[in-house]
Specification:
The complex is a heterodimer of chains A (about 400) and B (about 400). Chain A is an alpha/beta fold. Chain A folds into two domains: about 5-320, Alpha-Beta Barrel (TIM Barrel), CATH 3.20.20.70; about 325-395, Alpha-Beta Plaits (2-Layer Sandwich), CATH 3.30.70.20. Chain A contains eleven helices and 20 strands. In chain A, the strands form six sheets. An eight-stranded parallel beta barrel of chain A has the order 3-4-7-8-9-10-15-16, surrounded by seven helices. In chain A, strand 15, helix 7 and strand 16 form a beta-alpha-beta unit. Chain A is globular. Chain B is α/β, with parallel strands linked by helices and about 400 residues long. Chain B folds into three domains: about 10-105, Fumarate Reductase Iron-sulfur Protein, Chain B, domain 2, CATH 1.10.1060; about 120-210 and about 360-410, FAD/NAD(P)-binding domain, CATH 3.50.50; about 225-355, FAD/NAD(P)-binding domain. In chain B, the strands form three sheets. Chain B has a five-stranded parallel sheet, with helices on both faces. A five-stranded parallel sheet of chain B has the order 5-12-6-7-8. In chain B, helix 13 links the parallel strand 6 (about 250) and strand 7 (about 270-275). Classes of the chains: A alpha/beta (about 400), B alpha/beta (about 400). The interface of A and B includes residues 262, 290, 300, 386 and 388 of A.
Chain lengths: ~400, ~400
């Protein structure tokens, strides 16, 4: 087929939107080479700083979020930025740009003063970075607790320094945190400051849990811990909300990050407005080889749905957003059970009798639904373990 | 919910696929004779990329559907599945069959590549021949398949019983293979003359005619005696009934064909079906799953027994004499040497006797094609060169030969 996954982001042509996020997977030249050879469209190098910035990592720094013994849902981390400073990062950029000219290199930077921001921008531009991402948003590691992206004025000011430092018009991406009152306010502040794009989201401020045997934190560093950044599939709904909000209310390109694992996640992010897709957690689970499955699924989806390019997909679903009061209440929907698929676990009964409208009863081969009581609230569908077994239909 | 097969619905397939850990250096991939990228196709089932899953399977196995249905998966891909060390091995072969069926029924299989010069003849339209033909056709070569029966398919078509291989699903895959662009000439038995002209006309020849003739020792002329292969042939095309085999069926043999015959006799309704094997259960070559299925179906296994005589009445089989067999030292195959001992004969009523002694080597076709100046363009594979093995091994043989053929043609 002649379709491909190329997409433009801030005037840069990506061979595909899949980009390694600023994280451990992108903190090593050899890893990025492997990723590019495997077909990844781009990489955001792990956030770097000026030479004399003290970066003191602690271990352990990562854990798997366990839910009922399933440790795959998400990760949490108390990682910091890269221990490698700007000179080493720039060497990597020069090396990789020469060998992989079609793949996008994004430098990610963090600084504590205007002069430092300027130095980082100059060096990245000189090294040939395709885009610059500004990290002001990690939940952990900020000494005085002020993370610029929690504050609109600060965000606008710092972004302004970065834009003013620019000499080659390299696109600037400002990475945002979801733990703010209104992310669009921060997004617009960054835009006023001169951001060309926004990246949403950074990890979500959270807590890993308590080890009930030892009464220590789950992510314990010799007995102590702190709040950590949550990532992976469990944060995807939060990421999607932020991507959609920014796409509708700010109007500059959005790089989507947060729980992206499969081609379906990628399609959803694109449809909600993202035109670049960044991944970290899934890489640590599945390896760079996952790019083949991402590409395969997305290309086959484009074929099936008739999209000629990924650009055609960006933001396509945004018109479906409506205010709560404007949602249609005139059609009564009721739930239904597919008797062929039902396995008889009765989860729907539990949900409906404890949180629904008492419309489901037991006794037959499968539970039965009293359509006069059912309001189509959706709680039964939400707990049913068999995809496609329970559906809402119009009440005749 | 109806559960006739392990995977009946998309929901089941997706749920099962999402149990997979996608191991690195996965034992399932290593255990597959054709190295299908199992973790990858399962990942794609898990995300409902049906075309992607099928593409992954077909990339290494053009007969993905039939293999998914008949492979001895417990001994191949599932054997060392890491989930087997936790709650249970992934249903790999079932997932493969399901994904292939989904893709075939939706018409999602890729088209052929660019045409290239080069003509290849394939002798034998069974799994190995068809695999080679499909692979070469997809790479752009012109292929003609010569098949002696009136339609292609080989062992899965003629011998594997429909209860073990769903005929509708096999048909679905066979039709897709037949329509992939190769020429098929059925009802053509290739003799020396035709072989010579084929060798002259084509740039390469792949000979995959299957194993040799059925080994059918002389057991007398009474009605009711036949080979398992013949019985299965007739069972598959519906031309044998319970009346033909009667209520007391005795089968001699210990391989999968013997078990197929036993199961088919049970399916026809025979009350007593005995399977005599001259060695013991530990030497029996049939796959364990097949043995268990037969035991559950009520087939009675007689170990260390061999039919030495058949009595008849009015020209029809009436009894079989089963001698006891003692097992001595191991022979070159590692199995203990059997010796018939007539001091413990058992006589059983029998309405039919079915022999499953396997097939001999196919030396004839090797002679037919082995002559003269054409040996560098003639390749062999499948049961005729591996001695009689699985469908997936036939595919593996075809893949190897195709690599050599394409080297020759380029």
């Amino acid at each position: 087929m002649s379709k491909d996954l190329s997409i433009e982001f801030c005037g840069r042509k990506f061979i595909n939107p899949f980009t390694i996020a600023a994280s451990p997977p992108s903190d090593c030249r050899e890893r990025i080479e492997r990723a590019f050879s495997a077909g990844w469209g781009g990489a955001v190098l792990k956030t770097t700083s000026v030479e004399n910035e003290k970066v003191d990592l602690v271990y352990p720094m990562m854990g798997g979020l366990s839910y009922r013994n399933q440790r795959h849902a998400s990760f949490y981390n108390i990682d910091l930025i890269s221990e490698r400073h700007i000179e080493e990062i720039c060497d990597d950029i020069r090396y990789l740009k020469e060998r992989y000219p079609e793949h996008m290199m994004i430098g990610s930077i963090m600084a504590g003063s205007r002069a430092d921001w300027e130095e980082l921008v100059h060096k990245l531009e000189d090294a040939g970075a395709d885009l610059i991402e500004c990290s002001m948003s990690c939940p952990q590691g900020e000494g005085d607790g002020t993370i610029p992206v929690n504050d609109a004025a600060l965000t606008e000011e710092v972004t302004g320094w970065i834009r003013d430092a620019r000499r080659k018009n390299t696109p600037i991406i400002v990475k945002l945190s979801p733990i703010v009152t209104d992310i669009a306010v921060i997004g617009n502040a960054a835009k006023r400051g001169g951001a060309d794009a926004l990246a949403a989201i950074d990890t979500v401020r959270s807590y890993a849990g308590v080890n009930l045997d030892t009464l220590e934190p789950q992510l314990s560093v010799r007995g102590k811990s702190l709040y950590c950044g949550l990532s992976g599939p469990s944060v995807k709904p939060i990421a999607m909300a932020c991507i959609a909000d920014l796409s509708q209310n700010v109007g500059i390109p959005v790089a989507g990050i947060g729980g992206l694992t499969t081609w379906k996640d990628a399609a959803e992010f694109l449809l909600l407005g993202a035109s670049n897709l960044q991944i970290c957690t899934a890489i640590m689970k599945y390896g760079f080889g996952m790019i083949d499955d991402l590409n395969s699924g997305l290309l086959n989806y484009m074929d099936e749905k008739g999209f000629d390019s990924l650009g055609d997909m960006v933001g396509k679903v945004l018109p479906s957003f409506a205010a709560h009061e404007d949602l249609d209440r005139s059609v009564k929907m009721v739930s239904s059970i597919d008797k062929e698929l039902c396995i008889g676990c009765n989860s729907c009964y539990v949900a409906c009798s404890n949180g629904g409208y008492h419309a489901i009863s037991l006794g037959g081969e499968t539970p039965s639904i009293d359509e006069s009581k059912c309001r189509g609230c959706g709680v039964c569908q939400s707990v049913c373990p068999v995809a496609g077994c329970m559906n809402l239909k119009k009440h005749e | 919910m109806k559960k006739e097969c392990l995977i009946c619905s998309e929901a089941q397939a997706v749920a099962e696929a999402n149990r997979c850990l996608h191991c690195y250096e996965a034992p399932c991939l290593k255990g597959c004779p054709v190295n299908v990228n199992v973790p990858r196709f399962i990942a794609r089932i898990g995300t409902e990329d049906w075309k992607g899953a099928a593409d992954t399977i077909i990339a290494d196995n053009p007969l993905g559907l039939v293999c998914g249905l008949v492979c001895p998966a417990d001994e191949l891909c599932k054997k060392n599945c890491n989930k087997g060390k936790l709650e249970g091995a992934i249903a790999i072969s079932e997932l493969q069959a399901f994904a292939m069926h989904k893709a075939l029924s939706k018409g999602l299989i890729k088209k052929n590549g660019e045409k290239r010069p080069g003509k290849v003849a394939v002798i034998g339209g069974g799994p190995s021949g068809l695999s080679a033909a499909v692979l070469l056709t997809k790479d752009g070569y012109s292929v003609t398949v010569y098949e002696k029966q009136d339609h292609v398919g080989g062992i899965p078509e003629w011998e594997i019983p429909k209860d073990r291989l769903d005929k509708d699903l096999w048909d679905e895959e066979l039709k897709a293979l037949e329509s992939s662009g190769m020429q098929i000439r059925t009802g053509v038995l290739v003799d020396e003359t035709l072989a010579k002209s084929i060798c002259r006309e084509y740039d390469a020849v792949y000979v995959a005619c299957g194993v040799g003739d059925v080994i059918a020792p002389d057991m007398g002329k009474a009605q009711g005696i036949c080979s398992a292969e013949e019985f299965l042939n007739r069972y598959n095309n519906g031309s044998v009934t319970l009346e033909d085999i009667g209520n007391d069926v005795i089968i001699q043999g210990g391989g999968n064909t013997a078990i197929d015959a036993a199961m088919s006799a049970k399916k026809l309704g025979a009350g007593r079906v005995y399977l005599c094997y001259r060695r013991s259960i530990s030497e029996m070559p049939a796959w364990e799953e097949e043995y268990l299925n037969a035991a559950r179906a009520g087939v009675e296994f007689l170990w260390q027994r061999q039919i030495v005589d058949i009595h008849s009445r009015n020209g029809k089989v009436s009894e079989a004499v089963l001698a006891s067999v003692t097992l001595g030292e191991a022979d070159s195959s590692g199995r203990r040497r059997p010796a018939v001992d007539r001091s413990h004969d058992a006589v059983l009523p029998a309405s039919s006797v079915i022999t499953a002694f396997g097939r001999g080597k196919n030396e004839k076709m090797k002679e037919v094609f082995g002559a003269d100046d054409y040996t560098e363009k003639v390749f062999y594979g499948g049961d005729m060169s591996n001695g009689g093995s699985t469908v997936v091994q036939a595919v593996a043989d075809a893949k190897k030969a195709v690599i050599e053929i394409e080297k020759l043609l380029s």
